[in-house]
Specification:
The protein is an alpha/beta fold. It has 19 helices and 23 strands. The structure holds 5-amino-5-deoxy-1-O-phosphono-D-mannitol. 5-amino-5-deoxy-1-O-phosphono-D-mannitol (M6R) is lined by residues 289-292, 336-338, 341, 344, 387-389, 469, 582, 586. Residues 289-292, 336-338, 341, 344, 387-389, 469, 582, 586 line the site of 5-amino-5-deoxy-1-O-phosphono-D-mannitol.
Length: 589
């Protein structure tokens, strides 16, 4: 999962590529590279690390170029494995995975070809070079016919220096006309500017950028006409303002995002369509990954408890390997911030093939998921830059809880209300700042545990994921009652344990687990809306949140946990926005 960008026009290409790559760093940042052509010679600059490592390449001369920011899948993080990759007259950048790379590579090697890297991407360069007979588009089409897997590629040919050819299969790709030139990129922010006209390629489509013309076609070279995409320039432009990191800024945006998501639901008739589809459904499956999977768990808990509608939640990467039962009338709901998560898309494709109706709850408007789904609801989280999802999780919860409330009223059941939740979120952020005093207990800890029951467990799972992904501390999220069945053996003196306690009916039960941990020496921290538990002897420190209907409470209780992860990460000297080994958009399986 990587980001690609390309430019051909009147400006010098290098600065356009580098600026575009900064916008794509959320897709990966292990290594970076560009290729720039002045019409006679093609120069490649590649470095390990982030885009800033190639800042010195801004002065390279040439009006055509391609660039890449990498998140390693095949091959280590080395300069050789960084893109662009070259074979003879062909140079390309690739996002995706060539699943039959080993077979294709050995065929090339049998022909005596040598490889400079361990990547699957270089195989594509070899295929195109082998197919090249004077027409780059023909060669790209023929090469793509041999690839099994996913790709978004931008290809240059030294024999046709004024042409850039692109292709897409299951990896996002847009092409368009920007100021003084033609562009290609994995995502809009890389190339969006005033007056730009952008088009999204579909799977199996190719584009040729040449002079001032873009031709989009299919594998038979039949031209495809497209409507330009609508995009919001402001949304694409994100800056830190007074913040040190995007993650902290994005946590502060939660109240606004909740309001925007609620307003969107109130005015969007897709919402009532969505509820109607749900009403007619006999069997609901929810698929998602990571944080979005935790939203799915929260959705399931609320649907079942408030509406008595059963639902099953699947980790998307497991779904297709479990031979899922898709009965007549199955509704599959996919939840995703990016709408590009390969595992989620694969689950959706499988469910569609088996006859399910697919509904999506997604943040990114022109994403593959939004296009694939039969019914779409957009969360209104705006652009989320930090790799760790925060505001998008709260926005997903706002949407799923609104669905639950609407479904309850359709079914004549009483639902708790979300009224005032934005103000409560604001107060939760202020109260959550209290976790700064917890940080010394976590920053040096060997491991930590997050526990809760019911909805509180869903929040605990998310809190634990947040902490591990940006602080690199081992952490487990657990059902409070399950602790004594094994995990308790790991508790040592001062092991930090966070308990989430937002349900009064099971508060004492959760406190039993707290006591079990405390009596083995754990330092227990509490996130609760019940003041009486804060002063208990077992509790080292607590955050007191506003009261909220327990079934919807993860929307608030997760906030101090997001802040805890953030401050612990900073205390450990990490960059919380760009955790090692991770990327924002996971477009590979
Ligand atoms: O874009 P998606 O919501 O589909 O992404 C799913 C996960 O990759 C994502 O939530 C990931 O777990 C985040 N890094 C969590 O903070």
């Amino acid at each position: 999962m990587c980001g690609i960008v390309g430019y051909l026009g009147k400006r010098q290409a290098a600065p356009v590529l580098i600026d575009g790559l900064y916008q794509l760093e959320y897709r990966g940042y292990d290594s970076v590279g560009i290729a720039v052509s002045d019409g006679k010679k093609l120069k490649i600059i590649k470095k390990i690390g982030r885009v800033k490592e190639i800042e010195t390449a801004r002065d390279e001369i040439g009006r055509v170029g391609i660039g890449h920011t990498r998140w390693a899948t095949h091959g280590d993080v080395t300069v050789e494995n960084a893109h662009p990759h070259t074979c003879r007259n062909i140079t390309l950048v690739h996002n995706g995975i060539v699943e039959n790379a080993a077979k294709l590579k050995s065929e090339c090697e049998k022909r005596g070809e040598r490889f400079a890297s361990d990547t699957d991407s270089e195989v594509i360069a070899h295929l195109i070079a082998a197919e090249y007979q004077g027409d780059l588009l023909d060669a790209v089409i023929r090469a793509c016919n041999q690839i099994v897997g996913s790709y978004a590629i931008a290809v240059l040919c030294e024999d046709e220096p004024a042409r850039l050819v692109c292709a897409r299969m299951r990896s996002p790709l847009i092409v368009g006309r920007a100021k003084d030139g033609l562009v290609v990129a994995s995502d809009i922010p890389a190339v969006a500017e005033e007056g730009a006209v952008l088009y999204s390629l579909k799977d199996g489509e190719f584009a040729v950028l040449e002079g001032e013309k873009i031709v989009i076609c299919n594998a038979s070279r039949a031209e495809v006409r497209k409507e330009p995409m609508e995009f919001d320039l402001e949304e694409g432009r994100v800056d830190l303002g007074p913040y040190r990191h995007f993650m902290r800024k994005e946590i502060d945006q939660i109240p606004i995002v909740l309001r925007q998501s609620r307003e969107e639901i109130e005015r969007n008739f897709c919402f009532s369509d969505f509820c109607k589809v749900l009403c007619q459904t006999e069997y609901i499956q929810i698929v998602a990954c990571g944080t979005a999977y935790h939203s799915g768990l929260c959705f399931q808990a609320a649907l079942e408890r408030v509406c008595r509608i059963p639902a099953e939640v699947f980790i998307a990467s497991e779904y297709r390997y479990m031979d899922p039962i898709v009965r007549r009338g199955t509704l599959l709901i996919a939840i995703s911030q990016s709408g590009e998560t390969a595992d989620t898309l694969a689950a959706v494709r499988l469910a569609k093939r088996k006859g399910a109706h697919v509904a999506a709850i997604v943040n990114v408007k022109y994403s593959s998921l939004a296009r694939l789904a039969d019914t779409v609801l957009f969360t209104q989280a705006g652009r989320e830059v930090a790799v760790a999802a925060t505001k998008s999780f709260n926005a997903q919860l706002m949407v799923v809880y609104s669905i639950v409330a609407a479904m309850a009223s359709i079914r004549g059941k009483k639902s708790p209300s979300l009224r005032g939740i934005e103000g409560k979120a604001l107060r939760a952020i202020a109260a959550g700042e209290g976790v700064r005093s917890w940080v010394p207990y976590f920053a040096g800890a060997k491991s930590s545990y997050f526990i809760g029951r019911g909805e509180d467990m869903c929040a605990a799972l998310e809190g634990s994921l947040k902490l591990k992904e940006i602080s690199y501390l081992p952490s487990e999220g657990y059902a409070a009652g399950e602790l004594k069945h094994g995990t308790l053996a790991l508790i040592e003196p001062y092991t930090p344990v966070v308990a989430v306690l937002m349900r009064r009916d099971i508060a004492e039960k959760t406190m039993n687990a707290v006591h079990e941990a405390y009596s083995r020496g754990a330092s227990v921290f509490l996130v609760t809306c019940f003041e009486e538990y804060c002063g208990r002897k077992e509790i080292t420190a607590s955050v007191l949140l506003p009261k909220c209907p327990p079934v919807f409470s993860p929307i608030l209780s997760v906030i101090p946990l997001q802040l805890l992860a953030y401050y612990t990460s900073v205390a450990r000297g990490n960059n919380p926005d760009k955790p090692r080994n991770l990327a924002k958009s996971v477009t590979v399986e």
